[in-house]
Amino acid sequence: MIQKSLRSNLRIMLVLLFLLTQFFGFGNPPFFGETTAYAASQTTIQSSNLNVTVDDAFPRIIQYQWLGAGASNGAVFYGNEDTLSQVKINGMTYTPTVTSVVTRDTITYTLDISSIGVTMKMYFKVTDNLVEFKVSDITETG
């Protein structure tokens, strides 16, 4: 019964990782703009089951590493290998000024698009075997 539960949890994690990777890893996602081919500044957030390498200069997951017990321990799943630097809002592409704050399990980004007076806060948070991405605040002053 425990093996079945572990396999079920692993399947759920793989599906979630696949969906996140589809959004952050392949093609030209609808929210983020064109990619740039320069080296990213990376950091890691983690839980007891998952180690997530993120770009600390722009919201992007670079890779996931499974830390849980069993045969999957150490398995790596790749996210977006292309460095991102722009957002699309209403069909227009903008290059924001980005700052980030990192804790053990969370990275919070502040994206400031001064040309249109918009500031966005978003974060990745890893809990157990899940990664949450959330836009937590949008402020418009323009």
Automatic annotation (TrEMBL):
Taxonomic superkingdom: Bacteria
UniProt xrefs under InterPro entries: Gal_mutarotas_3, GH-type_carb-bd
Domain Galactose mutarotase-like fold: 45-141
Gene Ontology molecular function terms on file: carbohydrate binding
Protein name listed in UniProt: Galactose mutarotase-like fold domain-containing protein
Native source species: Paenibacillus mangrovi
